[in-house]
Amino acid sequence: MLEYLELLAREAATVEFEGPLVAARNAGLPPEHIAELEQAKVVALRVRALLERRRRREEELSGLFDTASDLAGLRDVDAVLAAIVHRARTLLGADVAYMTLNDETRGDTYMRVTDGSISARFQALRLPMGAGLGGLVAQTGSPYVTADYPRDERFRHTGDIDAGVSEEGLVAILGVPLRLGSRIIGVLYAANRSARPFAREEVSLLVSLAANAAVAIDTARLLGETQAALEELSAANGVIRAHSDSVERAAAAHDRMTALVLRGAGVEDVAAVVVEVLGGSLLVLDAENRRLALVGELDQPDPSAIAEALAASRTEGRSVRRGRLWFAAVVAGAENLGALVLRPDEALVDADQRILERAAVVTALLQLFRRTVAEAEGRVRGELLDDVITRPVRDADSLRARAKRLGVDLDAPNVVVAIGADALTGGSIRQRAVSWAQTYAQTRSGLAAARDGHVVLLLPGDAPGASARAVARDLGKLLARPVTAGAGGPATAPEGIAAAYRDADRCVTALTALGRTGTGASTAELGFVGLLLGSAPDGRDRDVRSFLDSAIGPVVDYDVRRGTALVKTLEAYFGVGGSLARAAEVLHVHVNTVTQRLERIAQLLGADWQKPERALEVQLALRLHRLSSS
């Protein structure tokens, strides 16, 4: 007897209950003992069956309890119905479980959920009312069960239904109604691919699951209606809240930008506030499309795209969108001061556009403030430079004190650079050159001013030639035209700076006379030629070309036509003090060759070309020719 208790305890399979009897027979036990074992086996199997029914009932109740729990926390009706159908298949041990719902508009019933199905045709079935087992259940509201549906003549078979059932391979089918009060809303099924009857307990279990499914569907309908109303209210509330938030955000951003202006902040600070509020990346450009500030990462758009977008922004008086970018023109009246280019992380609403447009206004205000301050400081610095280079210098100590307040040391080595007037024709060009010179000088602790048709810069340093060439190069790039710059110095103290200015003025005049426009040089680099060519006694420019033509023009023309080296011979001859032998050594030719060349020069210039007064003119002309050629 103990063996059967152990079998029951470990929930052994039915076949294992024959083990003790087989062992007893093999051991040759008496018949009465074997009969007792047989009776004990029968009792044990009854107990096992009872335990199995109770376990199964426990599983069914657990499934119903889980279904009720799902309904209590219903969020997704599809998920709940799928869970009910899956539990029906599991609890009944069916091959397939599925659910159809009635379509009141079309007057039929359609497949809603399946579990275990493999046929797409079966999953898409629609059943006319009264057709097939499901149609009959949907029409009558009574459960129906068949152990062999294809051969069951109780149901009205149709081609579509039979084809779907056949493709799925279903044989035994149980269907129970989904009842909502007195109304039938669908059918819940359990089916097998082999012929077998469904027990009464299985029908009862499926009816219970169907009741839960009906409740889930009706609850979902009510929840759907409630949810729709809540969503409408939530959407309306969201719009109101979003509008309120955006208005508050815009007001806060405007207050912050106003505070920045009052604190004297720059466009970089305004750009940082915009990006902090709106997100994304912001590029600030000036009127020439040069970058003033960049917060985040953003490639500068094509100039033509910027021009088109800003024209639209100015016309509409609002920011405009081009692809992922938003453009806002920075203007003051009719004057274009630049642009804001924003690439937001998220879409902008109207209030966000207002923030960008307010930022453009604040940026324009800062640009005007900066320009006003720069112009005022430029005037102060220009007036100081004008006073320093004016002769005679008055009150040098006062000039030093004024310069010190501006961060300029007049007693340190300084160079003076004068920009030729030929590059400054036109009011706008001249103004741009003056503005550039003021910024250029200020960043180097220097001064700049417009005087006598020139733009003059005072720069710290002791390399006038290099400074002149740097100014000519950089300003030439800005103005897109050749710029000539002459420099004087280095000089210290106001008196020395004033003298250096005169040298720079003569140097730029000499460069222009020599035809070396677009270059920079110092008076030291030009030597005595700069002093001679600086200006004529009457203030007019020297006529260098006429002087060259009259002094050595025939020799230069002869070299050009014949490919000779008469000019080179003259330079060597004068360079060695008129010695034929030494000139021949310099030129690497025979003395007779030098003699013959000098005779040719005498024929071209006249026999008196070596007389002191003519020789000086020839030597000066050779130097001018070399400088102008370089």
Automatic annotation (TrEMBL):
It holds the Pfam family HTH_30. It comes from the Bacteria. It comes from Dactylosporangium darangshiense. Residues 76-227 form the GAF domain. InterPro entries: CdaR-like_regulators, CdaR_GGDEF, GAF, GAF-like_dom_sf, PucR_C-HTH_dom, PucR_C-HTH_sf. This is Helix-turn-helix domain-containing protein. Belongs to the CdaR family. Coiled coil: none annotated.
